Amino acid sequence: MPTSGLVSCMRNEAPFLLEWVAYHSVLGFDRIFVYTNACTDGTDMMLERLQQMGVLTHVHNPMSEGLGPQESAMQHFLSLDDVQQLDWVLHIDADEFLNVQAGQGRVADLLSVAGTADVMALMWRPFGNNGLTRWTGGSVLETFTATQARPRAPNAQHKSLFRPRSFGAAIDHMPKEPLSGDVCLVNSAGVTCDPRALFVRHQARYRMPVENLSWDNAYINHYAIRSDDIFLMKNVRGDGMGRVSEKYFLNSKFYRRQNKNGGQDTSILRHRDALNARLAEFRADPVLDFLQTQALSAFVRMRDRVLTPERIAEWTAPEPVAQG
Fold first, then answer.
1. Per residue in 63-101, pLDDT tens?
2. Strand partners, 170
3. Distance of CA 276 to the CA centre of its chain
4. How far apart are CA 277 and CA 271, in angstroms?
5. What end-to-end distance do the CA atoms of the chain give, in Å?
């Protein structure tokens, strides 16, 4: 049976952390690694507690000079002996959830589809805000079910399930520096695709032709927006590559591309009972329960302080001009 690992880079994700960890542990990953840097909301303390409970491995990001947080973390991650012993790894963010459609909807079912490939490109499926402007807590997976109805080229992005022993480096969307010139890339349908992007150091898109854009067997539920207030508060943190830009403005190009509410998809809730049972185990721990409760309260206080009407206006991009 192939072994699998999950790795993520996080900063100030405490209100949402337990659902993400519980869900992916239910999916059947053998190992979960989470890198953090400069957390101020208790995310790192929650991860330390989860590590003590044997749930995952928490690593304080070494932050290599000249590299953004994700590149630094992946450089360290791929150097670990424990990681090199794994057959497959998936690198995703805290607002991304692997949604396996094949078989029983677990990691093992997806690895069967991947077969002997070196990389499987897993396409984003963007989930919108469901019209929610203010977050009051609860399950991300149950709250945000509005989504894009079908794969579309304009916002086609992927994350990557890959063999760590086949690559020398990785960025946020894919592995890099293949150790062989004969590397096999497949999409989630198992169709062989052009692997050239794997050889270009900073290229983050596979740039697949439309016929290779697929949600068959699996995709990444991408909750890039969640509620509008959560989205806007990303301006306080900056993105995973250490950049500050207008990306996290309401009505920005990124917002419009990701805030898709035209369809509905609740397939990820097939694991709801197992997820809720795992969450109950986590919340039975008084340390985790206290830290998550404090984090949500702190988020609400900071949101109410930061997101004044004036600041929201400042962080709202102009409406695009309609083309006549």
1. 888 888 899 999 999 999 999 999 999 999 999 999 999
2. 175
3. 20
4. 10
5. 58
CB within 8 Å of 48: residues ≥ 6 apart: 58
Structure tokens at 163: 């063999």
Give the Cα separation of 175 and 90 in Å (integer): 10
pLDDT in tens, 175-227: 999 999 999 999 999 999 999 999 999 899 999 999 999 999 999 999 999 99
Token representation of residue 63: 């932050």
Q: Report the alpha-carbon distance of residue 286 to residue 320 in Å, rounded.
A: 48
Torsion of CA 89, 107, 93, 173, to 10 degrees: 50
pLDDT, tens digit (0-9, with 9 covering 90-100), for 130-153: 999 999 889 999 999 999 999 999
What does the DSSP 8-state code read for residue 70? H
| CA atoms 75, 95, 252, 239: torsion sign | negative
- CB < 8 Å & 24+ apart, contacts of 312-321: 312/232, 312/250, 315/232, 315/235, 315/248, 315/249, 315/250, 316/249, 316/250, 316/251, 317/246, 317/249, 317/250, 317/251, 317/252, 317/255, 318/251, 319/251, 320/251, 320/256
Q: Give the DSSP letter of residue 124.
A: E
- What's the distance, CA 131 to chain centroid? 22
- pTM score, whole prediction: 0.95
CB atoms under 10 Å from CB of 299, counted, come to 20
Q: Rounded distance, CA 315 to CA 252, Å? A: 9
* Residues 198-213 as b or e (16 or more Cβ within 10 Å = b): beeeeeeebebeeebb
Spell out where the chain has E strands.
4-10, 31-36, 57-60, 88-91, 96-100, 119-126, 146-147, 158-162, 167-170, 175-178, 185-187, 192-193, 218-222, 263-264
